[in-house]
Amino acid sequence: MSIPFLIIASVILASAWAAVSLRNLVHCGLCAALTFLATGTLYLYLNAEFLGLVQLMVYVGAVAVLILFTVLLTRPATEAADPRPTQRPTFWKGALIAITVGGAVAAGLAAYVAPKGSSAPQLSIQEIGRLLTASPQNVLALIIVALLMTAALIGALLLAAPSEEGPKGGGE
User: Fold this and answer.
1) Does the model's pTM come out above 0.70?
2) Which CATH code for domain 1-76?
C-alpha cells in the first residue's frame, strides 16, 4: 500500500470515529463532513474521478451543509450532560457488531479472486454524465432528492423559528 492511501484512510477512520464519539453535535457534523471529504479524495486518488466528484459535490456540498444547518437551527440552548459515548452499554454492543461486520467484509475481500479475461468497459466522465441525465427516470430522481433536501431544510427552519404567540398562561 502506498503512503498517500494510508494517510487518506487514516483520516477517514479518525474523522468517522470522532463523528460518532464526540459529544458536541456541531463537532460531530464537522467530522462527518471531513469523512465525506476524505472519502471523495480517496475516490479521486483511486482514479474514480466521477464518483469522487459526485461524493464531493453531493455529500460535502449538500448533505454535510444540510446536517450542520439542521443541527445549528434545532439544537436547544443548553445541551443535556449525557454520559460519554464509551460509557454507554449500547456503544460497546455497536462496536462489537461493527467489528464483526468489518471482519466478515475483510474475510470476503481476502477470499475474492478477480475473474480473468473480462475487462470493464471504458467510459469517460462525459459519457457517464450524459447517461445519467439522458434518462427521464434519472432526472426525476435527482429532482425528487433536491426537493426532499429543500423540504428538510425548510422543516428545520420552521422548527427553529421562535413562536409568534409568546408564552401561554400570562397575566392577561
Assistant:
1) no
2) 1.20.120.1200
pLDDT tens by residue, 86-96 = 677 777 787 78
User: Which residues of the chain fall short of a pLDDT of 70?
Assistant: 1, 75-83, 85-86, 114-115, 117-121, 160-172
Tens digit of each residue's pLDDT (9 = 90 or more) over 14-29: 999 988 888 888 888 8
Where are the domains positioned within the chain?
A: 1-76, 126-155
Residue-wise DSSP of the chain: --HHHHHHHHHHHHHHHHHHH-S-HHHHHHHHHHHHHHHHHHHHHTT-HHHHHHIIIIIIIIIHHHHHHHHHHHS-SS---PPPGGGSHHHHHHHHHHHHHHHHHHHHHHH--PPSS-------HHHHHHHHHHSHHHHHHHHHHHHHHHHHHHHHHHHHSPPSS--SS---
What is the structure's pLDDT at 56? 85
